[in-house]
Amino acid sequence: MPELPEVETTRRGIEPFLLHQTIQCIQVRESRLRWPIPKDINNKVKNTQVTAVTRRGKYLLLGTTKGHLIAHLGMSGSYRVLEKAIPPEKHDHFDLILSNGTVLRYRDPRKFGALLWTEEQPESHKLLNHLGPEPLSDDFDTNYLYQALQKRKAPIKVSIMDSKVVVGVGNIYANEALFSAGIHPKRAANRISKPRIEALVAAIRAILASAIAQGGTTLRDFSGSDGNPGYFKQTLHVYGRADLPCTQCSSPLKEIRMGNRSTVYCSECQR
DNA sequence: AGTGCGGCCTGTCCGC
DNA sequence: TGCGGACAGGCCGCAC
What we know:
Elements: H1 4-18, E1 23-28, H2 41-45, E2 50-56, E3 59-64, E4 68-72, E5 78-82, E6 92-98, E7 103-107, E8 114-118, H3 142-149, H4 156-160, H5 171-181, H6 194-218, E9 254-258, E10 261-265
Antiparallel strand pairs: 1-6, 2-3, 3-4, 4-8, 5-7, 6-7, 9-10
Helix pairs in contact: 1-6, 3-6, 5-6
The structure holds a DNA duplex.
């Protein structure tokens, strides 16, 4: 389940192989992803040059001389770089083939990922134009988050996972950030004091930044490997630890469902 | 406009 | 040991 750090690690891993290279074609074997890969995508990208490899939220953006490829890893997607084409395996849904022979191969068992094409500015695209600030940018600060939450009486956990509020905070890191900030996941978003919001902003930034830093060290070489940055060995204090002792106070962690998602917290440390 | 939920998909795990 | 079913989860798109 790629969270923002995994997506950023992927971006950094594939960028050196793609930048300034010419796309020869895209070979699609399975087009039925989250949305169908457009049938004419190959005509669009053929012979274009990659001018930028960027990220917005959990979307990867490949800028070319004619438009942008918008990619998403969904739940189980991964890219790897091959020096030359080798026989695809199960779930290897498409290859982006460069004119120098390098192949960017996409694998995604659950097919929740996406590959789309747009000729408008990607930030104007329907999938991106509603997105809130990047959690690691200067736009995401205490004042911003506090203001954004004032109209929301939904639980804080649901709110920070809403990409209109801030992008890239998935279930794992939402649990961890709330534990770190000492905030109960069910607390109404508009009933949290500014100092506590400040702690939450700091927690979100710290956790994501640390995971990205570890991704950078974990991932030596995107070429040849399975392309999966895998799970960072980052210590998870609550996620996946239901009924185990709190790392801070030793009382057993509780698990509830919120919006059909696993939510783990310490009822002593989080209020 | 904010909120809640269905649906997409398949590997993994659990209970019988 | 085999098998069916629940579960996991990002996030859009729709209903309320």
